[in-house]
Design goal:
It contains one helix and nine strands; from the N terminus they run αβββββββββ. By secondary structure, it is mostly beta strands. It has one domain: Immunoglobulin-like. Strands 1, 2, 3, 4, 5, 6, 7, 8 and 9 form a nine-stranded antiparallel β-sheet that branches. β4 and β5 form a beta hairpin. The longest helix has 16 residues. The relative contact order is 0.24. It comes from Pontibacillus chungwhensis. This is Lipoprotein. Keywords: Signal.
Amino acid sequence: MKKILMLFLLSILLVACNQNRIDFTGEGDHWDVTYHVKTKGENSQSSNLEIRYTGDDTPPEDIHFELGDEHNGNVSLDEGTYKGSPSQCSGCNIARESQEFQMIIEWDDQEEMIELSSE
């Protein structure tokens, strides 16, 4: 029984050590963006995106955003914030800490480009 418990704890430790969390952030004149990525091995990751309006005007109700080829769409804001649902991919090109992303946000006939980099 002790061997099984030790094996179980060791496997949890190995899995946890094989995961890496990277937070990519960027600020613009009207928006703050955070892109959370958790890599799992060499070709699997989960990610989550948060977009927050920081402008002086009333936040828009809806925006269109593009973050590379993987994340884009029309979304509604809740009190000036969009919190995306977690997404996962396997067999994909995973994000690297040295990588930078470009986010384009469009709203009310305006557009802003924001560079995201890891902290």
